[in-house]
Amino acid sequence: MQIKAKKSLGQNFLIDKNILKKIVSVGEISRGDNILEIGPGTGNLTEYIIKSNPNTVIVVEKDIGLSKILESKFKNQIKIVNKDILKLSEGFYKREFLAYGNLPYNISTQILAYWCLSKKIKFKKLILMFQKEVADRIIAKVDTKNYSRITILANWKFSIKKIFDINPECFSPKPKIKSTLLEFKPKNNIAEIQNPKNLEYITRIFFGQRRKMIKKNFKKLFKDFSDVSKSIDIKLTDRPQNISIDKYLKIVKEFEGKSN
User: To bridge 166 with a disulfide, which of 140, 171, 179, 229 should be the other Cys (CB 3.0-4.6 Å)?
Assistant: First the structure.
């Protein structure tokens, strides 16, 4: 049966069998693992995940037509959740999932940010595919043009490794640009902050004016902005992309300390 991909949902189905096998192998699935797959589409990756004999496979597919195809194809081998991933509450993530996903471009950073900012959601590992330009931002280094809010949010919580790029020819329909597979492993010791939403708030303020010097942002956050910048060893003439992840976390801690 020919399935027409929906542009509105950012659908591009991965069809290269060698790439599908490689993606599954990165997860090193064991029998006790509970798998969560986001946007399984026609189930091409799901098929190889099932062959790895995990404990359970739960797939989240927003498209009702694709959900019916998955149901027919896999029957009781998987549990299908026909919902928007962004509308699932933290209660959905009661288990520690090993997650796979080809994340739609228009919401990929939103999904990742939601997972990063939740204190309740725990993962064994994430194996996620993004459009290459998004992946480049996630793994960007400080002092580069790709360094951004999502770099800070993701690297605060996870150790991230680029696995490989995937060419447009591996998909149907062919996207216009390359994709990139990233592996996310939860860090054992993350810098403790009282409320992760404060990290989101502060990075939004800074990167809302990424070309401008940060003095104005510091003034917005702290009355004693000059003293705070000196204590963290940040120059007020810096731009947002010049500040390391570690220093952003120190800004959050200062902010939380003064808000109490």
Answer: 179
Distances (CA, A) of 33 to 20, 89, 129, 190: 19, 21, 20, 24
Q: What is the pLDDT of residues 115-126, one digit of tens each?
A: 999 999 999 999
Q: Do residues 173 and 157 lie in contact, with contact meaning Cβ atoms separated by under 8 Å?
A: no
The half-sphere exposure of 255 on its side-chain side, counting CA atoms within 13 A, is 23
Between the CA of residue 203 and those of 41, 131, 135, 158, 240, what are the distances in Å?
33, 22, 18, 17, 8
Q: Would you give the DSSP letter of residue 190?
A: P
pLDDT tens-digit series, residues 44-91? 999 999 999 999 999 999 999 999 999 999 999 999 999 999 999 999
What does the alpha-carbon distance between residue 8 and residue 205 come to, in Å, rounded to a whole number? 30
Q: What is the pLDDT of residue 260?
A: 60
For residues 202 and 152, give the distance between their C-alpha atoms in angstroms, rounded to a whole number.
Answer: 11
The torsion angle over the Cα atoms of residues 115, 139, 100 and 197, rounded to 10 degrees, is 0
Q: Give 190-209 pLDDT, tens digit per residue.
A: 988 999 999 999 999 999 98
Share the mean pLDDT of the chain: 92
pTM, two decimals, is 0.92
DSSP strands (E only) in 152-257: 158-166, 171-172, 179-186
What residue ranges define each of the domains in the chain, with the CATH number in brackets? Answer: 7-186 (3.40.50.150), 196-259 (1.10.8.100)
With both helix axes pointing from N to C terminus, report the angle between 149-157 and 108-117 in degrees, rounded to the nearest 10.
40
How far, in whole angstroms, is CA 43 from its chain's centroid?
21
